[in-house]
Write a structure and sequence with these properties.
The chain is an all-alpha fold. It has helices spanning 3-13, 18-45. Helix 1 packs antiparallel against helix 2 (18-45).
Amino acid sequence: MNLHERCLLRYLQNPEELTCSTEILKLNNFILEKQFILKNFVAKSNAFNYTERIK
């Protein structure tokens, strides 16, 4: 069961905890977004080859 399913199940069991579940999902999505950006953009931007000489 992933985080989204757990939050939904938690909400169905305790609807008054919707705010907490929503904040957990927001935080999880933020972390996933940052990991995606780091993996796909930041890591690739520093892939320079410094061993070749410029003549």
